[in-house]
Amino acid sequence: MTLTQLSAFVLVARLGSVKAAASALGVSEPAVSQALAALRRYLDDPLLTRSGNGMTMTPGGSRLLTIAAQMVSLGAEAESAVRSAQGAAEQLRLAAPSTIVEFVAGPLADAFTSRSAGTIEVSAGVSATAEMAVLVSQRLADLALGPYLGADRSLGLVSEPVFRCRLVVLASPEARFRGSPAQWPWLVEPAATDPGSDVSRLLRAVGVPESRLSVFPNQTAAWEAAGRGAGVAPGIAHLAVHQLRRRELHVLDVPGTPVDLCWHATTLAADRRSPATASLRHFLGTPEAMKLLRSPGAGVPPSRFRPPVYVTIWS
Fold this sequence. Notes:
The protein has helices at residues 3-15, 18-25, 29-43, 59-85, 98-115, 129-137, 198-206, 219-227, 241-245, 275-283, 287-294; strands at 48-51, 54-57, 90-96, 120-126, 143-146, 157-171, 186-188, 213-215, 233-236, 250-252, 259-268. By secondary structure, the chain is of the alpha/beta class. Strands 3, 4, 5, 6, 9, 10 and 11 form a 7-stranded mixed beta sheet that branches. Strands 1-2 form a two-stranded antiparallel ribbon. Strand 3, helix 5 (98-115) and strand 4 form a beta-alpha-beta unit. The two termini are 18 Å apart.
């Protein structure tokens, strides 16, 4: 029985499928299946069985979940303790939606790392909405920046508002679109395919069918296409400030918009989070951080969130 096997079990149980667990851990589905199979053999219990709504835990699986979650969390804590004793910089992992990683996470990480005089290093990666709470609760991520994640009290998370913004629909000032907004060409970044994302909720509210979507590798690429008149692109208004000032884009009046949003910082409870995580959480409330949140960077192509090494060595 290993930490990799327990990590696989916890994430499959929490997220409801092998596919979702593999995505959260950044490994292949066969790798998760193999780890889960090895744990089942070791404990001589199915632990999880497929059902119409995803996965159902056996009585043994239900008892194991709490213990396994604690062990995975302690494994992350142990890794951090050993690194600290060796004099290595403490690693903080930030999970966020793709737009935040593309425009905001880099400048925030650089500013915070500079304040820590190199004793703390921050990495950021894209995570789906459903994954974030589980990653933080298992110490696979230290802080999530994005949607509110405090609904499941059993995870022991604190999710606090840090920044308000607006979701709008953007297009070229010269472009003209006829008919219902649901039938316009919509140019979106990958988060639009995440059912829990703000953009996905907007698309459902407008009634946009999948056939009208064009998914671009990042938000900047989607906005560039919109600027050429290829369609309309949803986005966070203040992140598009440069394109709006240059009149490459303007805000369209679409029913249901603008959508008022609030980014939340989610961590473990104060008595369980690391000092470095507590320091980062405090930093997010400072005027320096607020300025960075309001003033987007140039836009860096976001990458997937990568958990600690010990849970990614299977693939």
